[in-house]
Amino acid sequence: MSNITFTMIKPDAVADGHIGAILGKISEAGFRIKAMKLTQLTVADAKKFYEVHSERPFYGELVEFMSSGPIVAAVLEKDNAVEDFRTLIGATNPADAAEGTIRKMFARSVGENAVHGSDSDENALIEAQFHFSGREIF
User: Fold this and answer.
1) Residues assigned a catalytic role
2) E-assigned strands of the chain?
3) Which of 12, 24, 74, 127 is most exposed, with minimal Cβ within 10 Å?
4) Residue-wise over 18-50: b if at least 16 C-beta within 10 A, else e?
5) How many of the other CB atoms lie within 10 Å of CB of 58?
6) pTM of this prediction?
7) Residue 16 phi/psi, 5° resolution?
8) Average pLDDT for residues 105-120, to the nearest whole number?
9) CA 85, CA 82: separation in Å to the nearest integer?
10) Residue 1 reports pLDDT greater than 70
11) How far is CA 101 from the centre of its chain?
């Protein structure tokens, strides 16, 4: 499973109508979608998903934002998936993101930055299993 990563198209990008364009960039970069769904995190789900950040000052705002509207959750496959996807999405702050990256093109701000991408192979698996059962990943 080290060739997978997990992503969420966040509520800002969904609300702004960027689902298709973002999925297009993901496909053009050679990723294969292994699982995908439109869903909405509850406050409890967002707290659990982001509990690693629970001591950080932005945690409450992050939970509120991520449960504020629908997201698209997806498991992606490609050789070197985690690293390649993080390159594709760009820096957390879209002002610092490279031209052509998803965040540079579609993010509103550092807090509403269009997409989530797993930061390690281990977290990709944990995050994928948080959102999908084994029978939902192809």
Assistant:
1) 116
2) 4-9, 32-39, 71-77, 115-117
3) 24
4) beeebbebbeeeebeebbbeeeebeeebbbebb
5) 12
6) 0.94
7) -85, 0
8) 96
9) 5
10) no
11) 14
